[in-house]
């Protein structure tokens, strides 16, 4: 499966509901995060339905242009594993319809209303954090590396300092540091977020097996499929569900 620490809207059937049915998505823990869901009736599909937003995003279609853009990058950053997972999902459409990390207006809209400015349902913000804004300004092009290899160029269209307390309360229902994901948000993530379009050079490679959303969709079995994500290895309760 493709690496992800957040909600994956590409497989979120609730986001493209057309008719009510008895199937409802309530919540899904994802690597330490509980994704927020609105209670929405969904329709089951006998084949893979349309990707969230209508089109499965592919940011690796123009690698040549991205490599050329890398030559004019003003800053280079080495990703941590969490950021590399986000870049993987963005490049391969796991966060469709996003084409990059959320800009401030997109971030504010998702934190407040669980929707993009274009009104698509989106449970959690997808952000790129740095320790400070020193050396980064709007308009910069940032070369992103993972494991020493070039993976993407980020256009810094929005550089802003988020209100993490508000983000914690809106997204996780609490600002208490006893909540592990709130602790990570407050204590571990950088103080500044950079939003903007991502230009793919190479999909990040990991030591564990991964699949792109397109590969997952191509291997869906016939009949109704229910997607469920959990942060831990599946156990009996999950199996029974």
Description:
The chain is of the alpha+beta class. The protein has 7 helices and 9 strands. The chain has helices at residues 63-70, 81-92, 104-113, 164-172, 180-188, 213-218, 236-240, and strands at residues 28-30, 33-35, 75-78, 100-101, 129-130, 141-146, 149-155, 158-160, 192-200. The strands form 2 sheets. Strands 3, 4, 5, 6, 7, 8 and 9 form a 7-stranded mixed beta sheet that branches.
Salient structural properties:
alpha+beta
Per-chain topology:
Layout: E1 28-30, E2 33-35, H1 63-70, E3 75-78, H2 81-92, E4 100-101, H3 104-113, E5 129-130, E6 141-146, E7 149-155, E8 158-160, H4 164-172, H5 180-188, E9 192-200, H6 213-218, H7 236-240
Parallel strand pairs: 3-6
Antiparallel strand pairs: 1-2, 4-9, 5-9, 6-7, 7-9, 8-9
Helix pairs in contact: 4-5
Please provide a brief summary of the model:
The chain is an alpha+beta fold. Helix content is 24%, strand content 16%.
Q: How would you sum up the major sheet?
A: 7 strands, mixed
Number of strands: 9
Strand composition percent: 15-25%
Query: Into which percent range does the helicity of residues fall?
Result: 10-25%
Tell me the span between the first and last alpha carbons: 20 Å
